[in-house]
Write a structure and sequence with these properties.
Layout lengths: L1 H27 L2 H24 L8 H4 L7 H42 L11 H27 L8 H32 L2 H23 L20 H19 L1 H22 L11 H19 L1
């Protein structure tokens, strides 16, 4: 029961983090600055937790010469994933901002497992896993394409730029693929460092440094504004803390129930959080009422992920 509560909680936290970082971007005026703040907060939190649990932040410098270069790239992919979500959120809404990256994560996860990329153990494709991937794709079609078609058919909405929406949806799939790549890289890094928590810290630190460099090179103006008629809430600064808690929660959860069941539990929480944010417009998000078709599509996706991860 404790494992289920942990998984649902950190899963719900993911779309909440995206909403928080999107609100932060409104005040700082840049997705890179917003991501930088999130990564910095997460890095500081993970550094404290690593000191408390592992009693050390360092590792052997020989790893830079003995390990492949890609082992340090997880943080860069995390930057793309987090910044991408900030850009996707106002374009697609909370549910689609979650769904499209999930599709990319599933596709890339299958490729990584099948070919054993990034030091992962090979897990060849089976009929059941392919069926699961098909169900995920069907769920995406139901949630995105079918719901939009039905809304247009009944005249309840007007699509002003369908091609533009599909561009953002494709971008969401790509960011999801990079997120799955980051997971595989960090998993191998955790094995090398003998600490999943320290691997997460390295990933956050690399991402933080990358964002600082991007902000400096682009000469992005550092500013803090207050949107007209609003105020800057305290919670817009805690997105990085939620991201770090997600990493820490997975560190605790996976040994308890295994990776497959952990992913399924977190996904249920993630979908539930997205539905709640879209339905009620929490954390300053624009309301996007959920339809029955979307709920059915999400359930189909969850079944597909369960088949992929558990069999």
């Amino acid at each position: 029961m404790l494992a289920i509560l942990i998984g649902l909680t950190i899963g719900i936290g993911l779309p909440i983090q995206t909403s928080i970082n999107s609100r932060l971007r409104t005040s700082v005026g840049s997705p890179f600055v917003a991501s930088g703040v999130s990564f910095t907060v997460g890095t500081l939190f993970l550094a404290v937790m690593t000191l408390l649990l592992d009693h050390s932040l360092g590792f052997s410098a020989t790893l830079f010469s003995s390990q492949p270069l890609w082992i340090w790239l997880g943080g860069f992919f995390g930057v793309i994933y987090l910044t991408g979500n900030i850009l996707l959120f106002p374009k697609l809404g909370s549910v689609q901002t979650v769904i499209m990256p999930v599709l990319g994560q599933i596709l890339m996860g299958l490729l990584v497992d099948d070919f054993g990329w990034f030091g992962s153990q090979r897990n060849p494709l089976t009929v059941v896993r392919v069926l699961g991937a098909g169900l995920v794709l069907l769920g995406v079609i139901c949630t995105v394409a079918l719901s939009t078609w039905l809304a247009n058919h009944h005249g309840t909405t007007t699509v002003k730029n369908a091609s533009g929406l599909w561009f953002w949806r494709l971008a969401g799939v790509v960011t999801g693929m990079l997120s799955a790549t980051q997971t595989a890289i960090n998993g191998h890094l955790g094995t090398v460092l003998h600490s999943s928590l320290k691997a997460a810290l390295v990933s956050f630190f690399v991402g933080m440094v990358a964002l600082i460099v991007i902000v400096l090179i682009s000469r992005t103006k550092l500013q803090l504004t207050t949107p007209a008629g609003q105020h800057n809430p305290w919670w817009m600064w805690v997105g990085g803390l939620i991201g770090a808690l997600y990493v820490l929660g997975n560190v605790v959860l996976v040994p308890l129930v295994g990776t497959g069941l952990a992913v399924v539990i977190v996904l249920v929480g993630l979908m539930a959080g997205s539905l709640l944010i879209d339905q009620f417009g929490w954390l300053g998000a624009k309301r996007h009422p959920i339809t029955v078709v979307q709920i059915v599509g999400l359930l189909i996706m969850i079944v597909g992920v369960a088949l992929i991860r558990l069999f």
